[in-house]
Protein: Phytanoyl-CoA dioxygenase
Amino acid sequence: MAALPNSLMSKAQDNSALIEKLCKDGYVICNNLMAQTTLKRLRTELEPWFLQTPRCEGYFYGYQTTRFGRLLTKTPAIQPLITHPFIKDLNEQILGPHCDYYQLNLTQAVRIHANAPQQPPHRDEDMWPTPHKAHEFLINVLWAIDDFTAENGATRLWPGSHRQDGKLHDPDASQMPEIMEMPAGSALIFLGSTLHAGGANIARTHRTGIIVSYSLGWLKSYENQFLAYPPDEARHLPKELQDLIGYRLHRPNLGGYENHCPSVLLQSSGRPASLPARDALPPEIEALLKEAYENV
Ligand SMILES: O=C(O)CCC(=O)C(=O)O
Ligand SMILES: [Fe+2]
Structure:
């Protein structure tokens, strides 16, 4: 493949080039991936929540930032971002082979206020404490709601710091991170194994972004999706989003309600009094068990 001119890619570029770049460098920036009308709506819907949400507490989140989740309820304009076909394709190729289905791990609005220091560098996958991960557990998409600049806290990221051939590669301590500058409406996509940090904000104004991350369907998600979107709320979402937030079984028999598909709770008739436990198995296991059963 011809070398890409820089880390900026347009949505017209085909996905295989994007995935190649993501796997090689651990990140890729897609310029202006969201429609301007979506950006405008997101700004309008997010602002009242930024005004009413108290500042974060803790050295990881950072005391001079504001964050909140549950974005499907707070800003419905986010729906097309979560199910963006471009991101879907990436998820299917990178996470898809390692699970029955991938899930929505988190939606989070992040505002880095003026004078905020740099966040501690980290890999988002470290929340799952398995030391040697043989494949990616998470894909992160950070949507720029404001322009991300060197001064206002654009994400710092260490290219090539992601897993290579099953090993975690740690950048040389002297390696400087790259600054993920991008115009509002763009998306920074990076792997869960890529080292990064929210930048220090030395500008006069804040920097706002939205994190949408996806993880393997058999992992505990960062945001508790069933509390964020209980059945009475989830019932009104499109099926694709109900699936993404986990109202379905992950084979074998994982994530059920009364050993049944949890989507049963989305019916308007409410909670059934009792249900038959029903296997959800991969076809090869199902076939083996059937054969053994019939030969008893
Ligand atoms: O806001 C940013 O630039 C990055 C935030 C981040 O990496 C995190 O909160 O995990
Ligand atoms: Fe992070």
User: Anything to note?
Assistant: The mean pLDDT is 91.
